[in-house]
Write a structure and sequence with these properties.
7 strands, 3-stranded mixed sheet, globular, 2 helices, alpha+beta
Length: 129
């Protein structure tokens, strides 16, 4: 289900129970002026538990969460223009790419940046926005 949580100057907060509720003061997605901005997602399930199985499983859950937020906003992964991947360990880049390609499998692929970072929320190994 989708719940519009606010409306001001063409900006609407989008939430869905198909992904974890935010663990900090942010909204799952914002729809503004015909565009959708999705917050960074980690491998938390809708009940806020980290999926077991390592970086590939976390990547799959993070992208499932992004897909759910986009669908709640009335769009899909096919319309994503830009993505950012944050990795706890850059050595996981190939494993993340393998799962990422399952979700983004139509050209043109989104523009993307990937960074290794020191820490991620909820002890995640990957965060994707």
């Amino acid at each position: 289900s989708c719940d519009v949580v606010g409306y001001a100057l063409g900006k609407r907060g989008i939430t869905t129970n198909k992904c974890a509720t935010p663990i900090a003061p942010y909204t799952q997605a914002i729809k503004a002026n015909g565009m959708v901005f999705v917050s960074g997602m980690v491998g938390l399930t809708p009940d806020r538990k980290m999926v077991p199985g390592g970086v590939a499983a976390e990547t799959r859950q993070a992208l499932t969460n992004i897909k759910a937020a986009l669908e709640a906003a009335g769009t899909s992964l096919d319309n994503v223009v830009k993505s950012t991947v944050l990795l706890l360990d850059i050595a996981d880049y190939a494993a993340v790419n393998e799962v990422y390609a399952e979700f983004y499998n139509k050209k043109p692929f989104p523009a993307r940046a990937a960074f290794a970072v020191r820490h991620l929320p909820a002890k995640a190994k990957v965060e994707i926005e």
